[in-house]
Design a protein that fits this description.
With 82 residues, the protein is of the alpha+beta class. It has one domain: Hypothetical protein (Metal Transport, Frataxin, Chain A), CATH 3.30.920. Helix content is 33%, strand content 20%. It contains three helices and three strands. The longest helix is centred in the last third of the chain and has 11 residues.
């Protein structure tokens, strides 16, 4: 079942980073508003921040969740994002 990104419209950067860390990602590098997160199984994602309270466009969320961190709907529920 595909992920309903409309339900994630209010996802803040703070909640996304907390979920990444809960799933085993760690912050490898930070420079300004650019945060690089890596996982021991070699997945990685880069998050560009203006503030921790910012929300993301649906296309940005799809790129992060589907392509980079490869979470499924069950993972989002486990991490408390849905």
């Amino acid at each position: 079942m595909p992920i309903d990104y409309k339900r994630l419209r209010s996802l803040t950067a703070r909640r996304l980073i907390r979920a990444l860390k809960k799933d085993g990602f760690y912050e490898k590098k930070r420079k300004g508003g650019t945060h690089l997160f890596k996982h021991p199984d070699r997945r990685r994602t880069t998050i560009y921040l203006h503030s921790m309270g910012q929300t993301f466009a649906i296309g940005t969320l799809k790129a992060i969740i589907d392509q980079q961190v490869q979470w499924k709907e069950a993972d989002l529920e486990r991490l408390g994002l849905l």
